[in-house]
């Protein structure tokens, strides 16, 4: 299997578009940091900023007709600000190492788009160029051929994501050092510091939901319909309009059984709110696992039954 993956890997990197995606990934991870560093205001004193925010919230509380929820929020922010000043917990008024790394984690959206492009074309391009005939006449099972292509796409996406995180980390370390932000939160009336690295790690893990499901879906469409444009277009439309689609389906009970409602696992992050009431992380993972199996099996079954001369 490794030699087939290696063969697909070499074919993938023989394309200029692959190198273009890699370069764009590096630029997106590095350039924004440089822009932020030399455009943000570094002269602000965090204590002054916190006091100004506190005064603003107090003035808002003095307004008539204030909703109870708004009043509760303003009082909580005032309490957090006063705690920060009293305990000398600095507020990050400029970009910090962890905040930019969090941006790097968020770049998985771009990585997913690039991976979808590769997943949609890695099979369909064989048909459009006619090389599929030569590929399938080799003494190799079609299952191994298709599996090697799917694994190559996943490895490519993971490589781009690793480049994103490495690039973001290195440039952030160079420009801002190891300083991190110290966010506060109130839990059951008790103020405590947010676990910065825990939040970033949680976001990192949960971000893989849409990554894998988009790859599997685009790979299935590209394998079945032999059209990369259809696979790319449909996958990206569903991904980008997912929130709207979920909103439209939310009044129907079947909505919680549709994979689109669960692919964005960040809805289950700490402090987050699931798109559909009553949906838990284990349930979302179960639904995604079922659809992932269906997408992959559909790709393999139809590809194995297809005529070589097609």
UniProtKB/TrEMBL annotation:
Highest taxon of source: Bacteria
Where are the bilayer-spanning segments? Answer: 21-39, 100-125, 146-176, 204-222, 229-249, 283-303
- Keywords in alphabetical order, please: Membrane, Transmembrane, Transmembrane helix
GO CC, any one term? plasma membrane
The molecular function terms in GO held by this entry are: ABC-type transporter activity
Annotated protein name in UniProt: ABC transporter
**The organism of origin for this protein:** Lysinibacillus odysseyi 34hs-1 = NBRC 100172
Organism lineage reads as: Bacteria, Bacillati, Bacillota, Bacilli, Bacillales
């Amino acid at each position: 299997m490794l030699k087939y993956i290696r063969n697909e890997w070499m074919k993938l990197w023989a394309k200029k578009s692959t190198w273009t995606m890699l370069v764009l990934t590096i630029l997106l991870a590095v350039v924004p940091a440089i822009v932020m560093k030399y455009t943000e205001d570094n002269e602000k004193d965090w204590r002054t900023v916190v006091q100004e925010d506190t005064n603003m919230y107090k003035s808002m509380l003095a307004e008539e007709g204030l909703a109870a929820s708004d009043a509760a929020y303003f009082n909580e922010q005032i309490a957090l600000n006063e705690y920060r000043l009293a305990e000398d917990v600095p507020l990050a008024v400029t970009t910090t190492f962890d905040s930019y790394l969090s941006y790097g984690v968020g770049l998985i959206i771009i990585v997913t788009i690039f991976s979808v492009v590769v997943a949609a074309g890695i099979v369909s391009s064989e048909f459009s160029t006619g090389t599929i005939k030569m590929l399938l006449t080799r003494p190799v099972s079609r299952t191994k051929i298709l599996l090697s292509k799917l694994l190559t796409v996943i490895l490519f996406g993971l490589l781009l994501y690793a480049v994103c995180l490495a690039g973001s980390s290195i440039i952030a370390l160079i420009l801002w050092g190891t300083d991190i932000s110290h966010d506060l939160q109130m839990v059951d009336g008790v103020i405590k510091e947010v676990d910065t690295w825990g939040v970033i790690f949680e976001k990192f893990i949960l971000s893989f939901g849409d990554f894998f499901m988009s790859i599997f879906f685009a790979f299935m469409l590209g394998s079945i319909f032999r059209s990369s444009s259809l696979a790319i277009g449909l996958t990206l439309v569903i991904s980008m309009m997912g929130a709207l689609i979920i909103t439209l389906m939310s009044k129907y009970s079947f909505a919680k059984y549709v994979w689109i409602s669960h692919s964005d696992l960040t809805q289950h992050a700490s402090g987050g709110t699931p798109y559909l009431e009553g949906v838990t992380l284990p349930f979302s993972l179960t639904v995604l696992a079922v659809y992932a199996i269906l997408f992959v099996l559909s790709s393999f079954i139809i590809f194995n039954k297809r005529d070589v001369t097609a």
